[in-house]
Amino acid sequence: MVSAAAIRTEAPPTGARLGIHDVSHRFALEGQPLPVLDHIDLAVAPGEFVALLGPSGCGKSTLLRLVAGLEPPTSGRLVSDGVPIDRPDPSRVVVFQDPTLFPWRTVFDNVALGLEAQGLIRSQRHRVDEALRLVGLAAFAKAYPHQLSGGMAQRVALARALVNEPSLLILDEPLGKLDSLTRLAMQSEIVALWQRAGFTALLVTHDVEEALFMATRVVVLSDRPARIKAEIAVDRPYPRHRGDPHLAKLRHEVLGLLGLDATW
Hints:
This protein has helices at residues 4-7, 60-68, 107-111, 113-117, 125-134, 150-162, 180-197, 208-214, 245-257; strands spanning 18-29, 32-44, 49-53, 75-80, 83-84, 92-95, 168-172, 200-204, 217-221, 228-233. By secondary structure, the protein is of the alpha/beta class. It has a single domain (4-91, 166-263), classed as P-loop containing nucleotide triphosphate hydrolases (Rossmann fold), CATH 3.40.50.300. Strand 1 and strand 2 (32-44) form a beta hairpin. Helix 5 (125-134) crosses helix 6 (150-162) and helix 8 (208-214) packs across helix 9. The longest helix has 18 residues, at 180-197.
């Protein structure tokens, strides 16, 4: 496998080392157990960008919730830099499909929420300014959410995550509600942010091309309960080109694993 460091073009990796060890998970549905994850084993290196692909409802977002520490697994264990994940932590930040901005707060104040919660906003105010600069919204610090486009609102959500200087950025279909052109632009912007900051990234997406364009490795999951069917290294340098024949070959391989190759 080609390492993330080998194909980065900017900052060396400083992100978390993530370990998912024999993790299974189930929910209770009408008094009956509903298996969702089935013995997941996955190691993510510091600074790697891993995308999770799989059928709708297979358990991808559930796995992200476990990685974020929002709930414990039914069995198995998760560790970040060797420390068990048993609760949320500012070093692991989730960006969801919906930016969930507070409409009565300015862009600056939305981004500052994490620092406010930690009592750091007075001494660390510059981190908000830097996060807004990184996502290209420094000029919109005093704007309100209703004055923003969908892409701009998602940039605010990214800035809110980056202000915490996460070692692991967890992306749960963050571009799913954007129009196609904005989505393409945001894919490149997220990759650029990852390259500059050096964090580890874990992305859930239903878009095969998006996964191959952004990630250093694509993990393909089965139907629920999710098992790992394949791990595919995307050994192409950045910036990537969507017409790259090698990416087209990998796309066909991934679609085959998902049972969709006959349509291409």
